[in-house]
């Protein structure tokens, strides 16, 4: 393993991939943004990012490079860390007013999701909530009205750059809803690890744990999907090897590259399903405006312990593949706890400033979250409230 690591350099971590979409991977690939626009026939893109990134050199340079290449690019950055419907509606208004013919979704999960949903809604006439990921509601959309999307991730967490959906909060009910359509998948992804160098350590940790949660829950989900299982296992190995390195040294381009891949692998794998880690996280994120990756990280060991009866055999396989010190589920939980401690993740909900006052409400919301149905052990409001209580008390 050490010899393999020694052979890795930013220069040889480079490739053009077509799974699950076209990915231009490697340091410096952001220079190809204008070419990507032209390849998709985008002449006047709208770059969607978050307020924190909007004023950075990476965004300014990307817009300037497009301008110099004859691809005038406008900027939209009025969105929250947990985007709401108003953010999407405002973005659609800007896109239509500027006659923009494509979207560059640039940033972390909030920017990627918002940009994708703006592009999806660009030519629709029905309300956004009519396309929630329920049954075949996606067939209500007019595919011709979906603007082409280029995704440029700047964090290694959600993997939204390779996903066919966007998560938007419905403020009227304080619930996160998934807007889905197969054509919401970005047509081209530019995955440049150099864009992730400036991400602070605490966000590197939180987003990295999000990537782990996606791979782990996908692997544990009960559906039959061996291809997703294989992707998820390798995604977990990359997190084990490289997340502590990325947190400790944010300028390590090899670690940034490996974590970027792990995040995309997680989002590719979770087409198989997720579980109660996400079911518990979504209500806390929407009610308390908490970081999604951080909430996933806090809930992870408690859900693993709860699912013991259904995932023991899978945990054995994970332990062997990751070469964990202790076999089985206990070894997997021990590793998660040690990883969280190493990178500074709170052990309980108290670290997120979440108390028991709204547990009944949160549990009811978690029970109807779309991810609850694919948890390996059946969960309802009572079980989910118990998990909230465990996560507050630190009971595993």
Description:
Helix content is 49%, strand content 11%. It folds into two domains: 2-195, Rossmann fold (3-Layer(aba) Sandwich), CATH 3.40.50; 200-393, Dehydroquinate synthase-like - alpha domain (Dehydroquinate synthase-like, alpha domain, Up-down Bundle). The chain has helices at residues 2-6, 33-39, 51-54, 57-68, 85-97, 109-121, 201-220, 226-248, 253-269, 276-288, 292-306, 308-322, 328-343, 359-367, 381-393; strands spanning 15-18, 22-25, 45-48, 74-76, 102-107, 149-153, 165-170, 175-180, 188-191. The chain is built from 15 helices and nine strands. The two termini are 32 Å apart. The model has no long low-confidence stretch (mean pLDDT 95). The chain has a seven-stranded mixed sheet with strand order 1-2-9-6-5-3-4, with helices on both faces. A two-stranded antiparallel ribbon has the order 7-8. It is an alpha/beta fold and 396 residues long.
């Amino acid at each position: 393993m050490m010899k393999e690591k020694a052979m890795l350099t930013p220069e040889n971590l480079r490739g053009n991939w077509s799974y699950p979409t076209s990915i231009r991977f490697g340091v410096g690939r952001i220079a190809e943004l204008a070419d990507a626009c032209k390849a998709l026939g985008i002449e006047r893109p709208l770059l969607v990012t978050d307020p924190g990134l909007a004023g950075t050199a990476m965004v300014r340079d990307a817009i300037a490079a497009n301008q110099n290449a004859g691809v005038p690019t406008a900027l939209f950055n009025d969105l929250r860390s947990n985007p709401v419907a108003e953010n999407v509606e405002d973005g659609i208004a800007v896109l239509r007013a500027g006659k923009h013919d494509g979207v560059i979704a640039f940033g972390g999960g909030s920017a990627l999701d918002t940009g994708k949903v703006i592009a999806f809604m660009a030519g629709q006439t029905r309300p956004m909530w009519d396309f929630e990921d329920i049954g075949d509601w996606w067939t209500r959309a007019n595919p011709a009205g979906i603007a082409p999307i280029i995704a440029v991730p700047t964090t290694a967490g959600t993997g939204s750059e390779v996903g066919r959906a966007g998560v938007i909060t419905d403020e009227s009910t304080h619930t996160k809803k998934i807007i889905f359509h197969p054509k919401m998948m970005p047509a081209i992804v530019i995955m440049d690890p150099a864009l992730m160098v400036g991400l602070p350590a605490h966000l590197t940790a939180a987003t990295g744990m999000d990537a782990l949660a996606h791979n782990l829950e996908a692997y544990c989900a009960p559906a039959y999907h061996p291809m997703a299982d294989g992707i998820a296992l390798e995604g977990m190995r990359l997190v084990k090897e490289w997340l502590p390195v990325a947190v400790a040294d944010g300028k390590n381009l090899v670690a940034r590259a490996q974590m970027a891949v792990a995040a995309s692998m997680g989002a590719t794998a979770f087409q198989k399903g997720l579980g109660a880690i996400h079911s518990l996280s979504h209500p806390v994120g929407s009610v308390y405006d908490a970081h999604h990756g951080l909430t996933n990280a806090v809930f992870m060991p408690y859900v693993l312990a709860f699912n013991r009866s259904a995932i023991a055999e899978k945990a054995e396989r994970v332990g062997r593949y990751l070469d964990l010190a202790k076999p089985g589920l206990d070894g997997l939980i021990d590793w998660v706890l040690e990883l969280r401690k190493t990178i500074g993740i709170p052990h309980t909900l108290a670290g997120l400033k979440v108390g028991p006052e709204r547990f009944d409400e949160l549990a009811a919301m978690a029970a109807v979250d779309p991810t609850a149905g694919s948890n390996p052990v059946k969960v309802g409001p009572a079980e989910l409230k118990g998990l909230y209580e465990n996560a507050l008390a630190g009971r595993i």
